[in-house]
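Please, structure for the following, as tokens.
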Amino acid sequence: MAGETFDKRPGKIWYDGQLVPWESANLHVLSHGLHYASAVFEGERAYGGEIFKCTEHSERLKKSAELLDFEIPYSVAQIDEAKKLVLATNGQKDAYVRPIAWRGSEMMGVSAQMNKIHLAIATWEWPSYFDPAQKMKGIRLDVAEYRRPDPKTIPCKAKAAGLYMICTISKHQAERKGYADAMMYDYRGYVAECTGANMFFMQDGKIHTPTPDCFLDGITRRTVIGLAKQNGYEVIERHIKPEELSSFTECFITGTAAEVTPVSEIGDWRFTPGKITQTLMDGYTAAVQPKQKAA
């Protein structure tokens, strides 16, 4: 479906409890979610027809809504079933899954207690986020201008639409320079994350990753930490200063879209994808594959 815009695709979208034609899944221009970013979402992947960490994503979606002071009118189990229904209806096995919830158009202003809460779920076939050949040699990252904000200023544990504004700006700036993405510092100047992925670094056989105290503790991040420990690697969560980057030998990023992707450079810092990165790439690939059911 190369070149096909996201408003004109075949298939169905689950919208407020009903399957509707893709092109009919619309909202009013005066929806609160559009004007005031009162929207939360998830990014998930299906492998072989099974959504990886399906329930964990639904739980986080509900929690994100609570942090934005609204309640999604569906249970975690109902959201799980809706996602599976859309995937099956669209006949997709390996796909991206996007649930999104937002405040509607009943009130227009900062205050919106009476607005209806909507939920929609779309799925579409989606290949690897980065080109496979590029992925094997490591992607190149710029250093973002914007920083992840102080958690006293934002609901940093929510996967909320408004928090991605500076991510889009930073990724656009990086791509214009020929980079694949950008690394962001946090409000204190510590290494934080990429625009849509968490970060890991290797030093002397140990894995170091930034403490997610002002940005999202990704589900893929937690999965990879578990895989690393299963493989006998020590994982150290801590604040990482920019000047430490020259001491790390390997670097990779994690996320539902990025999966496990090696990094070869960040600005002036260089890394060589090696054994630890390869082990965790292979481990994650094995983990996301549907388990064969016994006969």
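Residues 27 and 104 are 8 Å apart (CA to CA). The mean pLDDT is 94.
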